[in-house]
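Can anyone check this?
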Amino acid sequence: MNKLLQEKAVLHRLLQSICWRGHVYEFKRLQRNEYGELGNEPTPVAQIQGIFHNGTLSHISLITSDAGTVPAKSVPCILTAWGNAEKLKLEDVVEVNRERFSVSGIENIGQMNIAGEVSLEAIL
């Protein structure tokens, strides 16, 4: 089997695992009024089945010198089917274990349109 088929097979097994062990998360979005201002009440936009986990995010931070560092940071994420992930927009809100999170990124894993990872940021 070539490498592409192996990757697709792994992603499909991942989707089966999400169906068996995943939880349903309800994402909400603040709607804008006719003046472009955000409203107060979020409205539900999608219910997504996925697996909540902590991933790692590497980012470059420049210090006063010319050298940069690449620290790894733990980021909460939801792993789901790509069809679910593409329904979301940045700053949509979800509640997980009584803690509110905002969508900070959406990634199409392997650019194969099979599985997606939704990065979250805690709302203080």
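Reply from J.R.: I decoded it. DSSP finds two helices and eight strands in the chain.
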